[in-house]
Write a structure and sequence with these properties.
Elements (H helix, E strand, L loop, with lengths): L8 H4 L4 E3 L9 H8 L3 E3 L1 H17 L11
């Protein structure tokens, strides 16, 4: 981990799940560092898909399978 992210090195061993809401399929410094530390990671593309599925359900009552969304 580097200081450029303003995350103290001591925190990395405590983190179990990292979520980054930026939509960057190629990754960024945060996602790379989290994955290198062996931390489960949810990226912005995954989060946006989950949000779209839930919003469709809230507004229309239609529930879709996440695996059928073409991502």
């Amino acid at each position: 981990p580097t200081a450029e992210l303003s995350i103290p090195n001591s925190w990395w061993k405590e983190i179990k799940l990292a979520i980054d809401l930026t939509f960057r399929p190629e990754g960024n410094a945060f996602s790379i560092l989290a994955r290198n530390q062996g931390i489960s990671f949810i990226d912005g593309k995954t989060y946006a898909r989950w949000q779209a599925i839930e919003q469709l359900y809230i507004y229309t009552g239609i529930r879709v399978d996440e695996n059928s969304c073409g991502y």
